[in-house]
Amino acid sequence: MPELPEVETYRRFIEETSLHQTIAEVEVQDPRRQLQVDLDEFRQVLRGNQFTQTHRIGKQLFLLTAKGPIVTLHFGMTGDVAFYRDEADTPRFARAVFHFEGGFKFAFLDSRKFGRLGLTQSIDTFRQQKKLGPDALTLSTEELSKGLAKKKSAIKPLLLDQRIAPGVGNWIADEVLFQAQLEPERPAHTLLPPEVDRLATAIREVLETAIAAEAVYRDFPSHYLIHAREWDEAPVSAVSEAHLHCPRCQTRIQKKYVGGRATYFCPGCQL
Q1: What is the superkingdom listed in this entry's lineage (predicted)?
Q2: What is the pLDDT of residue 234?
């Protein structure tokens, strides 16, 4: 599933390829399933229009246009983007294609069709409707403290709440808690101010690391928990066994379910 790092990579790709080009035509393969507005309205708004800039909140991407309306993109389970010229290069799962007058095409890809495209007049209005908190990539200690204030739930599921930190997915939450050395089931209201600050810093640093690696998880630093998750899901071998231990204290990484989600953690470091 595309998480914040992947969506940020998509955003930067669109910035580099698809802005300031007049849209000649729009195709949507399955508008009833993947389009949140009427197809005729979608085409009318975009024909002759241009994408002028991008914006992202969590895993939600916005394409601003020269004439006002904003295209919203949510990538579901398998969403991706492509930019190409020749019809022969059309990706297999291109569900929506924006044809530019210059001959190039921007495509929204989605093999499982859980992604959605729509329109909004205002990012702030959309954000309020979806109850999205401040973007996780720039989340401040003050914003995180406000989001967690007086909450007695475990910290792990709260990090997955898009009202608190939009863009934090399951593996990211595990990594953040590991780097911040906090136990996943720790009640949020028991966190001390320095721990909240450590947590906010870890959220930003983990996301920045993932984006710099273009979400290729095997390229993450060796002290990241993600490697234990990866090897745990692979056939056990002498090589993989080493990855199943904490790089800080060498305690074996454990797995349990917190808030119904598989959770990896170090029982030695995360107290």
Answers
A1: Bacteria
A2: 54
The per-residue pLDDT for 1 is: 81
pLDDT of the residue at 66: 98
Q: Which of 204, 205, 261, 267 is catalytic?
A: 261
- Angle (CA) 134-123-157 rounded to 5° is 35
3-state secondary structure of 237: coil
pTM for this entry = 0.92
Complete domains list, the chain, with CATH:
4-130 (3.20.190.10), 136-265 (1.10.8.50)
Contact (Cβ atoms closer than 8 angstroms) between residue 78 and residue 110: yes
Question: CA angle 234-238-244, nearest 5°?
Answer: 60
Q: Compute φ and ψ for 211, nearest 5 degrees.
A: -65, -45
Instruction: Give the pLDDT of residue 171.
Output: 94
Instruction: Tell me which of 3, 6, 8, 175 is the catalytic residue.
Output: 3
Give the active site residue among 2, 31, 69, 184: 2
- Burial group, residue 184, by CB count within 10 angstroms (0-12, 13-18, 19+): buried
Distance CA 101, CA 22 (A): 6
d(CA 105, CA 95): 13
Residue 12 is a catalytic residue: no
Continuous H helices in the chain:
4-17, 31-34, 39-46, 123-130, 141-148, 155-159, 170-180, 193-212, 226-232, 238-243
59 is catalytic: yes
Low-confidence ranges of the chain (pLDDT < 70): 230-243
Q: What is the pLDDT of residue 9?
A: 96
Active site residue 130: no
Q: What is the pLDDT of residue 236?
A: 47
Q: Which of 11, 56, 59, 156 is catalytic?
A: 59
Residues 6 or more apart whose Cβ sits within 8 Å of residue 64: 51, 52, 53, 54, 55, 70
